[in-house]
Amino acid sequence: MTQRIRDSRRVRQVHGTRRPRPVRASERAAALLLVPAAAGCATAPPTVPPPVRTTAIAARAPMFAPGAPGVGDPYFPNAGNGGYDVEHYDIAFAYTPRGRRIAGRTRVTATARQGLSRFDLDFVGHRVRSVTVDGRRASFTRRGQELVITPPAGIPAGARFTAEVAYAGSPAQEKDPGLGRTGWIPTSDGAVTLSQPTGSATWFPLNDHPSDKATYALKVSVPKGLRVLANGEPDGRPARHGGRTTFRWRSSRPMAGYLATVAIGKFKVADGRTRDGLRTISAVDPAVTRDPAWLQRTTGAVTGWAARLFGPFPFDSTGGILDDASVGYALETQNRPTYPGTVDTGLLVHELAHQWFGDSVSVTRWQDIWLNEGFATYAEWLWTEQHGGRSARKTFEEAYGRPANSPDWKVPPARPGRKAMFDTFAVYTRPAMMLHVLRTRVGDAAFFGILRAWTAGHAGGNATTADFAALAERETGLELDRFFEAWLFTPARPRQSEIPS
Ligand SMILES: [Zn+2]
């Protein structure tokens, strides 16, 4: 957590403008004490305060400035917002199939990191009905994806505050150049959300950047016959009233905004325990398959396998959501990945490995997304190797066999650029190759020691490429600068000398 704050501050200093240091509430109180408390004095009170004290009050007056419209991520300049950290989202809405509409509100509890005269949330579409800050009506404007909120009074640095946004609309999908449709995806019987990297703003207002993780509560009312799946665990039993059912879910572990999900449909649901005693909730769309047993069983087995390699499962429940949506990719939505249309064991291994790599340990900036995809890809290689399939070494050799002049080697994994941030070879395969080479060089005990130190050291937080390189050097005692330079930062195929035999 400390790491995250330091990193996000550094990003802001590089990309934002310097602001005057805001005055803390305690200082403001001290300044107010300087106002002559003369009303009750027996002697004649001065009609005006002494000039020197007036000056002191003016100099110490609280200074408030607008929060930045982004956290300073070079790949997504407007993603997230500056000036505050969110602790908790409380999202409540009703879904109406006719017109595919939602209506509700989101309550954001945050702490100001500067004196705020105004601040932004990321939110697209919908009609915003009202905004309040700490229960008082706030004014707002919309500028693209920015919902710009001006509270009735400035928010002092360090103060905790709650912003509540009431809204209604028909959520619109986003289009990501690398992925296609993201955000709120309508399905034949409801909707599902797949929000990497910035789709969550299509269905609730948030600080939409993985550097600001928070806990979540979700309350969704749907017509009778539909069910609602989400992250975390159910918070009580579904409540029925007037032909509608209300589902509540709660995520008490920090979650990046893009991993928040809701799935609405006629799901068949299995709710049980893995062999290790972990709660597992799996849901399948009957249009795909009527029986959640395979998904439930395999999820339990893979979760247990991964925990033995990567360290304890980082959340309070696992599972999966298989929905009839043709978006062409699955997503590691926290606790239970979402599989659109189809799923197989390899895909399940990949998305469940993300629970450690990406969900629990999240990127600080999107440029480092190989930290998610390289590990999840290598987990697939490991699963295959340990279950009678091809060895990781063979998979590595096949990938390395691409000609040195192939354009695939031109994209450096830790600096892929916005357009290539989901490049299958550069961001998924090549970092997995790097991990395999590292494992070969240091041996299994040291390699899995690094992985477990990584998942333990940053659990529930954020990390960077530099953090991983430093950890690998610390754990092995090796000087690995040139190794990481060759595998992660160089737009060329690493030389054979970077591959131990
Ligand atoms: Zn992935």
TrEMBL record:
Cofactor: Zn(2+)
Enzymatic reactions: Release of an N-terminal amino acid, Xaa-|-Yaa- from a peptide, amide or arylamide. Xaa is preferably Ala, but may be most amino acids including Pro (slow action). When a terminal hydrophobic residue is followed by a prolyl residue, the two may be released as an intact Xaa-Pro dipeptide
Annotated InterPro entries: Aminopeptidase_N-like_N, Aminopeptidase_N-like_N_sf, Peptidase_M1, Peptidase_M1_aminopeptidases, Peptidase_M1_dom, Peptidase_M4/M1_CTD_sf
Molecular function GO terms recorded: aminopeptidase activity
Keyword rRNA processing included in the entry's annotation: no
Domain Peptidase M1 membrane alanine aminopeptidase: 347-487
Biased composition (Basic and acidic residues): 1-10
Keywords from the UniProt entry: Aminopeptidase, Hydrolase, Metal-binding, Metalloprotease, Protease, Zinc
Composition skew (Basic residues), residue ranges: 11-22
Domain Aminopeptidase N-like N-terminal, first and last residues per copy: 87-259
One Pfam family recorded for the sequence: Peptidase_M1_N
Protein EC: 3.4.11.2
Domain of life (superkingdom): Bacteria
Ranges where the record places region Disordered: 1-23
Family the entry assigns: Belongs to the peptidase M1 family.
PANTHER family the UniProt entry points to: AMINOPEPTIDASE N, PROTEASE M1 ZINC METALLOPROTEASE
Protein name in UniProt: Aminopeptidase N
Lineage: Bacteria, Bacillati, Actinomycetota, Actinomycetes, Streptosporangiales
